[in-house]
Amino acid sequence: MKISIERGTLLKAVAQAQSVVERRNTIPILANVLIEAEGDSVQFRATDLDIEVVDKALAQVERAGATTVSAVTLHEIVRKLPDGALVTLTEEGASNRLTVEAGRSNFSLATLPKEDFPVMATSEYSTNFSAPAPVLRRLFDKSKFAISTEETRYYLNGVYMHVADAEGGKVLRCVATDGHRLARIDAELPEDAADMPGVIVPRKTVGEMRKLLDDDDMQIAVSVSETKVRFATPDITLTSKVIDGTFPDYTRVIPQGNTRKMEVDAADFAKAVDRVATVSSERSRAVKMALDEDRLVLSVNAPDSGAAEEELAVAYGDERLEIGFNAKYLLEIASQVDRENAVFLFNSSGDPTLMREGNDTSAVYVVMPMRV
Amino acid sequence: MDCDAFYASVEKRDDPSLAGKPVIIGGGRRGVVSTACYVARIRGVRSAMPMFQALKLCPDAVVIKPRMQAYVDASRAIRAMMDELTPVVEPLSLDEAFMDLTGTQRLHGHPPAIMLARLIRRMRDELGLTGSIGLSHNKFLAKIASDLDKPHGFSVIGKAETASFLADKPVRLIWGVGSAAQESLDRAGIRTFTDLKRWDERDLTARFGSMGTRLWHLARGLDARRVSANAPVKSISNETTFFEDTSDPDLLDGHLWRMAEKVADRAKAKDKAGRVVTLKLKQANHQILTRRLSLRDATQMADTIYRTARMLFDQVDDKGPYRLLGCGISHLVDASEADRAPDLLDPDAGKRAEAERATDRIRARFGPDAILKGRSLR
User: Fold this and answer.
1) Rg from Cα positions in chain A
2) Which of A255, B117, B215, B349 is deepest in the core (most CB within 10 A)?
3) A181 touches chain B (CB under 8 A)
4) Is the Cβ–Cβ distance between A236 and A16 less than 8 Å?
5) Measured between beta carbons, which residues in chain B are less than 8 angstroms from residue A280?
6) Does B340 touch chain A (CB under 8 A)?
7) With contacts defined as CB-CB under 8 Å, which chain B residues touch A371?
């Protein structure tokens, strides 16, 4: 194999590959990226056995072929090469070495046989649709903070992407929760997506996939089966197993009858919460909200470290209410609001609270209060 | 102060017909000896010995199931007497405690030795229980001294004679030096304190890690640990050795619930809650499996402890049989910091918690068996 490729193009392709590769590997080949050159392009393929990414780039292929080298090392080398350099990758038949040349730099990397590289089995996808990058970006960006890290509840370790019935008809919906907060984000249902099976997209996949979504004009091809999900741009294909489990019935926990409404500027609110939480104890980080006629008093009283209080003007017309929350959860949901005021709907100090942006019900957050 | 064959002494005191007979406290055929009286000890019975083995050595022994409440009561009475000597009492267990008598001579008008001698006399006269005193200038030596003259003994290791006392003593006298540590000390040619003293601190640390530093100090009779009253409780746990090895899920589940309830009862009594739930299983081949899970929200509720332990149990691949099951909580915090953040996905948890608190009130008023969960009968 011998190819020449522009440094920037190579860096982008290898960057995606090396981030999928697990840092600690018991199986050596999993640390490698499979490089396959043919025609006028080269493919970089990496996997952790749950996720596979294939990145295609244009290259000048002098001699077709394939090999595998350490993804992290190749990435480091390419990253340190000067911008605009032309990089040549050469592997001689039985040398077990890949030569990387750029200008006066010359590297020789150990390879492992391409035959040993585990290529993910191709599967049949029952649903194939196309969605604009910004739509998917919103669905996952606004929900991923609520993904659980508890290994015992593995079925919460991802975003549940499914088709749901909303007020205006069927929607494409993403839900994530860790049992303390929940995010439910809706988007218009793309054509051909109606029969999509609900899948739990793992946390790592959400992170990797996010890198495909930066270009506002990009259409993402999404393919879904019961066991796998695939996101593809013309250059990059990301295939992932989905979490084999049942996502809990979240509809039961989204409060319907919360009537005590508070409206507040989300940015002001987040800053105030952040300020008072400074003195709260590391573990609980509990913030008390005391509401009364258009007035919100945020306070923290941590016997070990101190106390803090801040008053905010809000729109609130219901009876007095005192309710406590984990400061981190409040900050996280408040930071999801980017256009309008944050609207909180409370019931009692022991019941889940609902938060949304203005009157927009396409992004709804639920947070459980804590005793303060 | 270390009581002599404490559980057995309480039994003999409460039932004079036992006097002179070998008495073993412990549970069931499959259980282990918890305490053996001195008569049984002469026959070779030791604490932690499996019961069948103890009965082989001493077939005429009277085996008594532990009556914890009686021991707790006796322990409290002794504690009250110790509290009169010094405010700094650090209990190690029901029958053993460190006391720091520094500076009490002016208070009592007598030196510590006199006051301690009076203490064990009072214990014998007023409570009918005997104990042994080890008096020294640090915890390490006091503990050793208390074992020198048992039962009903009194021994003193003064500062001046510390070095000569330790010289030819074996290092296994050090509390915490078990057979494994003994073996590695043997390999290093360390048998007595004199052997130990020949090593310099750096070599000991290099060879034995943090234990090495401690060994270096102990070799010189130095121990800077303070006697601390109210030494914080680090964990609360409970375990059961089964009458027969079992893999019966219903039986194990019943045990798990009862243990969770006991752990919760103790946590509630101490106003504590745990952030980590631990499950312990001993397989038939004595291999121990432990599983632990950190909770987001510390708990003192039997329901949460049980559910967490049960989830851990379900995730164990090995399905038994087991000879022991245990569960507990650790990383303790104040109860006021516990059970504060309910789980969205478990909306019934609040109701279960209320039911548990109501049950607790009923049990507090009408006795622990006044109301039970069905599963505790399995």
Assistant:
1) 25
2) B215
3) yes
4) yes
5) none
6) yes
7) 339-341
